[in-house]
Amino acid sequence: MSSSFGSIFKISTWGESHGAGVGVVVDGCPAGVHLTREMIQAELDRRRPGQSDLTTPRKEADTVEILSGVQDATTLGTPIGLLVRNQDQRPSAYKEMETAYRPSHADFCYDAKYGLRAKSGGGRASARETIGRVAAGTVAKAVVQAICPELEILAWVESVHGISCAVQPHLVTRAAVESNPVRTADAAAAEQMAELIRRVRAQGDSVGGTIACTIRRCPAGLGDPVFDKLEATLAHAMMSLPACKGFELGSGFSAPSMLGSQHNDPYYMEGDRVRTRTNNSGGVQGGISNGEDINMRLAFKPTATIMLDQETVTSDHQPTQLRGKGRHDPCVLPRAVPIVEAMAYLVVCDHLLRQRCCRI
Amino acid sequence: MSSSFGSIFKISTWGESHGAGVGVVVDGCPAGVHLTREMIQAELDRRRPGQSDLTTPRKEADTVEILSGVQDATTLGTPIGLLVRNQDQRPSAYKEMETAYRPSHADFCYDAKYGLRAKSGGGRASARETIGRVAAGTVAKAVVQAICPELEILAWVESVHGISCAVQPHLVTRAAVESNPVRTADAAAAEQMAELIRRVRAQGDSVGGTIACTIRRCPAGLGDPVFDKLEATLAHAMMSLPACKGFELGSGFSAPSMLGSQHNDPYYMEGDRVRTRTNNSGGVQGGISNGEDINMRLAFKPTATIMLDQETVTSDHQPTQLRGKGRHDPCVLPRAVPIVEAMAYLVVCDHLLRQRCCRI
Amino acid sequence: MSSSFGSIFKISTWGESHGAGVGVVVDGCPAGVHLTREMIQAELDRRRPGQSDLTTPRKEADTVEILSGVQDATTLGTPIGLLVRNQDQRPSAYKEMETAYRPSHADFCYDAKYGLRAKSGGGRASARETIGRVAAGTVAKAVVQAICPELEILAWVESVHGISCAVQPHLVTRAAVESNPVRTADAAAAEQMAELIRRVRAQGDSVGGTIACTIRRCPAGLGDPVFDKLEATLAHAMMSLPACKGFELGSGFSAPSMLGSQHNDPYYMEGDRVRTRTNNSGGVQGGISNGEDINMRLAFKPTATIMLDQETVTSDHQPTQLRGKGRHDPCVLPRAVPIVEAMAYLVVCDHLLRQRCCRI
Amino acid sequence: MSSSFGSIFKISTWGESHGAGVGVVVDGCPAGVHLTREMIQAELDRRRPGQSDLTTPRKEADTVEILSGVQDATTLGTPIGLLVRNQDQRPSAYKEMETAYRPSHADFCYDAKYGLRAKSGGGRASARETIGRVAAGTVAKAVVQAICPELEILAWVESVHGISCAVQPHLVTRAAVESNPVRTADAAAAEQMAELIRRVRAQGDSVGGTIACTIRRCPAGLGDPVFDKLEATLAHAMMSLPACKGFELGSGFSAPSMLGSQHNDPYYMEGDRVRTRTNNSGGVQGGISNGEDINMRLAFKPTATIMLDQETVTSDHQPTQLRGKGRHDPCVLPRAVPIVEAMAYLVVCDHLLRQRCCRI
Questions:
Q1: ipTM (interface predicted TM)
Q2: By C-alpha distance, which of B285, B153, B276, B282 is closest to B229?
Q3: Residue A172 pLDDT > 90, yes or no?
Q4: Does residue C276 sit at the D interface (CB-CB below 8 Å)?
């Protein structure tokens, strides 16, 4: 049950980091949507390792193959199978891990849960699992754009270990974000962040940060009351990402610093459109979108793999020391940006389809 | 689809604020669990309006009836139907709202979604909907206690509009929390918070705050990898609560301020138990519990209903002024504490049952 | 998980035969559908005990209450809670059953599954459970009629223990079916069937038969390929009815007697509509409706409760004799007709809503 | 939603007949189950085309690759991805079909549903889709055998167009079934059936028949009351198979010929085991297994593709004639036997896992 997401637009990912490959089946994609291998590959290239000197030097092309569900660049309405073969497998780099639990990794927990685990690498806990999310997210994006061409989802690195991007959320552009390898929206901050990441990597250490994500021109009415509120499904999606430790919508953790009279978003008319003067709600009220920008913030912890000695225990409960040996990102955030966007598209796509059934 | 939660232990709530009643069906509860009406009533009494001078003065007994699934104080394994009749209905208090959209309420969004909405009160967006959650949460608690008698879930008000409780999470006791009407863990803070809430109410305004929740003595191995990570399902549960704007696990939004070498939780042996020296992970790694305390924090916005004039528009798009008239809580947090615990029990119960299927 | 049905239009029934009541929650019903208590009550009256001298003489009004989700005779889009109180409880009639397993009843199986069971009556295995199905089916019917006003679902008793109705399926009318207490389509057969049922009851015995069900003017395109084929979900629905032992679509078990050249349904044009000259397919090809009548047949076994001595064992494994003592139907078919229609409406309603998401 | 099956042990198939391949993702398989590629291949070889002179002469090796979820011949508890590449693609053979609707095929219905369809072959309606079912069924079988080593599922061809196998269900052995290419249990009938199939093929025509399936030594207590009764989920599984037109459990359509006093299965003690003297119930009462053999019968229609001229219309609604040109089975039953067993294993496996959650 663990590897499916969505209610109508439903995805099912599979694959270990060091097996034959990783992939996803997208079930519930409407027929008639324009979709090509290149569209999916382009997003995978944004999350690929080795894309800049800030990421892991591992070289993996992550070439996607469409196995089913698409013909003549058009979805058939049937399940879309997507496959990315694993290539750069170095199980030897993980030899030591077979016995020692890597701190703040999932090794111990998998053993506790299943009584066994994938021998090398993180298995399903590997960041490679997110390939299926990004591939499926591209399909979701194609559906969303076919239904709501004006809707746009944009994520960017808002801060890295104390260095923040100063640009206002509604002014951030994709061009600005993609113009620097950190994927922040502010060139000056980008340079500082990059420098910090390089310095921390040189020390064998790692850093985290925050990612902001906005959904623009989302129609009002999206999201279900009660359990599948728009923000609840977005939080589910985002908190399921490796290393994500916190989720905020709109005012988030700063909400308690305001009085109700300050926090409430007054309604007014802009032409014939009902709008709010402020957006502390973050575009969602009662779990349902109100047409304003849907603004989220996510906290990511520093990468767990560091090239420094750490105290730990072996799987047979002996104290030991462990030092990271794989090739890892000192900061996951630049590559996490397309993953966050993919998750947001998956949620929005599912709610757009649900929406078709809410009125007679 | 909006009103169901859980995968094996599945609940389905129903009911509008001003209809015949509210309730829940619990499907997937194992047979043989000790459960009485009184156990459920006790939790409902903790969320009931009118329980202290800090809450709405509305008087509603919220008496629960068990309609099915229980015999001789034992669950039958069949669906448990629970019903609470609505009593204190004053649709007249909501007359004005039928036309004017209350700021930061769901009125406008329901209209946008459904093309119509419950005439009076918040309908499904009313806090009365949480009665079903608390009732079902009590059933979940009974199941959890039957499977893991030592497991304990405890929530408390950590801060109200800047006033914080100083007690360390692992030292908080239920007795301390229940000893004051704010449901915070620190008597001195409780007094200050209560005073603040009274003052704000006198001004016709409202305040928010943060609630902390901890799950103690949770067995290692709970939670699914990938999409249904323990923290993802907890975030889904909590962010589906009315007024909740943010969710953190462990280090949360303070994670980015640490380096990987500071954030990683080293493993060591405590007798024959694998433990971590720090708990920045918040008791979960790779989506699976590691046996340490599972620590969450939630941000709640100030109550949307305030007794002050606010700018808004009518449903036929005319500008107007609106002033709250119902009897509402100036601060939802004291009554939200049992609701947060209920949601945490629902998530843990579902994962405990899922867990039975993860190994041969 | 056992008590939910449907994917978008989802129902969840609850209730034991001798508890407080039985009912259902309908989740996923679109907003804006005309629905009244009287519409639901009318269908419940068709399945009610005591409606004719052919059914159990138990008197139960089975009065339904709408608890939520409906306002001014219009659905709100929120869950519809429906409740029917149990009235005529005679647990004493079931005293003996607490220890002796009734042959071909579910007593033994419930014990085997749960380790305990409802003390009196059949608990969830009671035919009273179908009240929730019929109530929810009426909601489904209202939705179907709002989307496809011309679509009609009609079921009737086709045979009782060898006595058959001679009317061709496409000529059967609701008026004819409702004109006799057996609910068959042929007045002469109705008289013979009624006589047989009375005679069998006088002997303390029981009979079964077959029910036919047709879905007329169903639009082409309904049903999902692969697992949720229209006939697969219909079979699931019907085979979940108490006493149902077989399901056929179209040619059914007579298909093997034909050659492919005889069984294939040739296409031709009727005006601008694609039609088939024969309908061995039963209105469904590849799991998807083709616009022809969807014809099903169901086999029902004789009622398990008979007023004759039967060999059995007690729950502590002692041989014993048992003779039925409750007041039961000697033939379930007349009352099963509205239940079969309800199940068909539930399936069709769900597929009509699913259909809204299959194309962009 | 159409391509998933199961609640805890959940499979998701994908693939068109003439695309890159077909496959399945198995989610919810417990960790620690012995599973090899060879085990899966062996079952696929039983359904493979070209295995005898009674089946289509198409040569497809249908070689399966395990993409994930298995390590050292042991399941990891993570999703198991299985892939079979398509090899013998002859889209040219299907040229005519692009415009003319094949009678009793799904071409017209796919167009009606999706507004487009896979250009060549049956797309998802192709029998190739069942490869994923058989592959996943083998995983299910491995799980079932690990939990219940004594449980056995066996299917066989019971009749072909009037020629029946005379062996009693409880006497049928796998050895007997696999000893002849028809997969019936009686050597004499096998010869007659084979001859009939060859003769019908020579005429360009096709035949159907019935398949029996029995589940032996199933523990009592399996299956859920109400909607997911064991027979309801079995019927769903079987009626989702291409060409299946009818489903019976136990007495099935012969139930109405008996009186209740004849149909009821008296209980008696066999040592310390509760047994029934007859088995008209077919091993299931109230939706729950009672420990007796679970006996089913399925009706299959004659293959729709025949090498004879047939009346039909084109997709632009012109009358035309069509004659089958691909290489097809004149009788699907011999190859359907392993598919029926696979579906039964999928259902039983899911219920065995559900069962773990039904008691405290």
A1: 0.97
A2: B285
A3: yes
A4: yes
